[in-house]
Amino acid sequence: MVFQKLAALISGDNNKKMLKAAKALIPKINEYFDKFASELNSKEDFVKHFNYLKEQHLKEGKTLDELLPETFGLVKAASKFLLDSEYDLMGTTNVWNMVHFDVQLIGGITIHNGNIAEMRTGEGKTLVCTLPCILNSLTERPVMVVTVNDYLAERDATWMSHLYNFFDLKVGVNKSGLEISEKKEVYNSDIIYGTNNEFGFDYLRDNMAASQDQIVQDDLYFAIIDETDSILIDEARTPLIISAPKNESLDVYTLYSKIPPQLKENVHYNVDEKQRSVTLSEDGIDFVEKFLGLKDLYAENGFKIVHHVEQALKAEVLFKKDRDYMVVEGEVMIVDEFTGRLMKGRRYSSGLHQAIEAKESVEVKQESSTLASITFQNYFRLFDKLAGMSGTAETEEEEFFKIYGLNVCVVPTHRPIARIDRNDLLFANQKGKLLSIAKRVKELNSNGQPVLIGTVSVEKSEVLSKVLTLHGIKHEVLNAKHHQREAEIVANAGQKGSVTIATNMAGRGTDIKLGEGVKDLGGLFIIGTERHESRRIDNQLRGRSGRQGDVGASEFYISMDDDLMRVNGGQKVQSLMAALKFPEEEPIKNSFLTSSIEKAQKRVEGRNFDIRKHVVEYDDIMNFHRTIIYKKRKSILTSDSFSMEFVELIKEYVEYLVDSHKLDVKFDYKEIYETLIVLTSNEHNNLQIENLSSKVNREALVNFIEDYLISYFLKVQESSSDDFDVDAYIKRVYLGTLDLLWMGHIDNMTALRQNVSLQAYGQRDPLIVYKNQSYVDFQNLLNSIKNSVVINFFRSVNL
């Protein structure tokens, strides 16, 4: 079955089948639309029929699929009924002017069916989303619409509320910083808009809650992910983490930062730019041992030292200021490689962020212990139903299917695409490329045609800005340094005579509308200054022009020393470039070089997919642990009686206590006795060591200690009062113990993962080593939780 699905996916048959099935429903939907548009004359009429459909589902048992044509027809009729009505959109009065096109109905069907609808920029994905949201709200379970940032969540929720509220549906916006009571109100809504980060963090916080009334997200039914590729692909390599500072010295980071400037590449260390890794050579290890005054670097804590030194090397060699990160007011802030935005609050893990801080001579902040963590892959796979929409998803359809079980359906555009995508222009080096771009921009600008230029980093946008300035071209720059003016810059990018440089335009989330007279000039002209690692990001840049059938053009300028070609082009490309002396400012016409660009992109895409798959493979193991721990935690939170379970825990603890204090065939009665004295208040029990040593066989000893501890526990229960509820206290001890040991387990698994990759396992697969060892560690964790609950309870109560 899986093979057939994959075969269909590769051949493109799947897309045709999905479109054919969706198109078959359109006549029926429009039949209902005509009927409702003529028969329903008020909001009350629409609400009444909506409630009738809800009854059909909840009481009569009709499926959502059966109710889809009628519900979609009702929603479309409501959108027509609302034409020319006013609504408030984030402080401004707007007039409703949208009725669902047939292609938007197809998009809605695709999403409801649990697939990804690929719809071009400007095709109205925000309106499309209302169809599956309203249909699935018939279940009276929450539908979550996931966006890439808070602004889009607020905007889309406010915008579409005009339609949702028409059906008396409650819409919530899940923002960061809300109180628990406010969060609960949001999650009590029918349709909830919010960011992937906020939904994910709520899930983690719920599983750290001290009481049941602190839980806010209790029904993971249906998630519709806007910009699916951005959230499920681009952000999939970085897990969500809730952390607390470690109490460790920060001086080591400053010490380690002094090592890289003294080392030489290919002598002391080797760099693999493709894998973004740096490894010490034998000479490098010798140098580090001398520098740190160590005899054997791989002795006690050696792997930890090697790890930190290699992180310091990565910070020095692979991570560049104004490309990968920026220093803002003495703080190292990560630049999102896909959107060009600063990622506030996000830090590199495993000591890398501290290594960069030490390199930049800013305050080194404490590394953290992970309290809770989950990848987006495993979070979104918790939902009963998952779907999405994106302007560019088809290039990653294999990954969507293999990781999430999602198919991609490419929905036709409402109007034919009029944008002209020109062939790439290839140059020998950066200098020739930049001069040619400046010449092209000057030519277009002299005619008044707006130009949008995409760059891949802050650093490169500023270099290009200087080149344009030298050529007397007025322009705006949109990157992480100028994000405050983002909305203003984007709004003007389609105006006559505008020139805009934008770093990674991918996630900007705003349509660029053409100014007066711009269509006659050829529309918005897109210039890409180099190919991104992913074809999808290139397509997103192109998609900023030619929205809803507008005219436009796109053209990419590439040089053979661009990062993509330099790192991934292969030896043949480098050899050919060295052999042929191409003029700097003239485009190169060479079929081999042209085809090598796409091959390089496909290689990188494949490698990045492998990295994300690798993340999932490791996190799937942790996800198994997480699921068991969170399930146990939930059962503790929702229970009020622990006496019987605690007695069972005592029995398991006694077995452990006796077995762990057995010397050959004899028991260490003295150690067992001292342990019991520490656990209990002996003055109430008069326990003597002779009581234990007289029990020569295991069964007799176990039975005696069980009776002793259970008897003590019953005395604690008898002495309880209104001020001391034994069950509530066990609950508190249980939760505190579980959380503390789980936090330690997460750190242990992180260290194990680093060690299996650092150590050479010969022919053994590091993932198998990790899987086997993590199983042993997890069994130890479960036993440790049980034993520690008993120990912590007895140690902390007094009769």
Describe the model.
- With 799 residues, the chain is of the alpha/beta class.
- It folds into 4 domains: 2-239 and 377-410, 3-Layer(aba) Sandwich (Rossmann fold), CATH 3.40.50; 247-366, Pre-protein croslinking domain of SecA, CATH 3.90.1440.10; 418-589, Rossmann fold, CATH 3.40.50; 624-796, Helical scaffold and wing domains of SecA, CATH 1.10.3060.10.
- 52% of the residues lie in helices and 13% in strands.
- The protein is built from 30 helices and 24 strands.
- A 7-stranded parallel beta sheet has the order 5-6-4-7-14-3-15, with helices on both faces. Strands 16, 17, 18, 19, 20, 21 and 22 form a 7-stranded parallel beta sheet that branches. It has a two-stranded antiparallel ribbon with strand order 1-2.
- A hairpin with a 2-residue loop joins strand 11 (325-328) and strand 12 (331-334).
- Helix 4 (64-81) crosses helix 7, helix 14 (302-317) crosses helix 15 (352-359) and helix 24 (591-637) runs antiparallel to helix 29.
- The chain is globular and about 100 Å long.
- The mean pLDDT is 87.
